[in-house]
TrEMBL record:
Pathway assigned in UniProt: Carbohydrate degradation; pentose phosphate pathway; D-glyceraldehyde 3-phosphate and beta-D-fructose 6-phosphate from D-ribose 5-phosphate and D-xylulose 5-phosphate (non-oxidative stage): step 2/3
Catalytic residues, chain numbering: 84
Provenance organism: Gracilimonas sediminicola
Molecular functions per Gene Ontology: aldehyde-lyase activity; transaldolase activity
The protein, known as: Probable transaldolase
Length: 219
């Protein structure tokens, strides 16, 4: 399973990348606005230099010709950039065009299995089902992941299932069990994957016992 970090914050990306388990980055307009990105292309270029894997950068156009023009410009930023396109009619058309041009895409804002099916048929590199936002409205986000994995397996689609809007470690665990190809998570969730109170208690005990042994040897 690939781990992506869901942020545009360079410090957070560096911290996750330093762990040595990061496979890519996803950004979106809200994440860019959160940290006040001024030079969008320059900022994405920096992220692409920092990490070896795929970096999603989202278009803000909603009309076919404009999405294609904006996406082609984004694709020039770096070899590892992925053009993120919303799951709307013109977005699907643009994804088909990008796929024919060899430009990688991340089809975003997916909330239903049929949307995911159309995105795969258009040749999206990644589909981003938004797990947490479905849970937020009392709908089973995990069922969407399960359905997409089943549909893609049934027909052998190569589009990778990129579980997005992940809010906590249990989301990640369920996605891993269901076979999602990628999970994109905030830094807080990546760090929480490491934590277990028994690990901390066990380590404290090991170190205390080692100290005791050293002291007894000095006597
Ligand atoms: C990633 O590609 C998505 O834009 C992101 O995971 C959305 O997460 P949110 O629902 O927490 O905003």
């Amino acid at each position: 399973m690939k781990f992506f970090i869901d942020t545009a914050d360079l410090d957070e990306i560096k911290e996750a990348n330093d762990l040595g388990v990061l496979d890519g980055v996803t950004t979106n307009p809200s994440l860019c606005a959160k940290i006040g990105v001024r030079d969008f292309e320059g900022h994405i270029a920096k992220i692409c230099e920092m990490v070896a894997g795929d970096v999603s950068a989202e278009v803000v156009s909603t009309e076919y010709n404009e999405i294609v023009e904006e996406g082609r410009n984004i694709a020039k930023i770096a070899d590892n950039v992925v053009v993120k396109v919303p799951l709307i009619k013109d977005g699907i058309k643009a994804i088909k065009t990008f796929s024919e041009e060899g430009i990688k895409t991340n089809c975003t804002l997916c909330f239903s299995p049929t949307q995911a099916l159309i995105a795969a048929k258009a040749g999206a590199t990644y589909i981003s089902p938004f797990l947490g936002r479905l849970d937020d409205i009392s709908t089973d986000g995990m069922q969407l992941i399960r359905d997409i994995v089943t549909i893609y397996d049934n027909y052998g689609y190569e589009t990778e299932v990129l579980a997005a809007s992940i809010r906590h470690p249990m989301h990640l665990l369920e996605c891993a069990k269901e076979g999602a190809d990628v999970a994109t998570m905030p830094l807080s969730v990546i760090k929480s994957l490491l934590k277990h109170p028994l690990t901390d208690i066990g380590l404290d005990r090991f170190l205390a016992d080692w100290d005791k042994l050293q002291k007894s040897l000095e006597e």
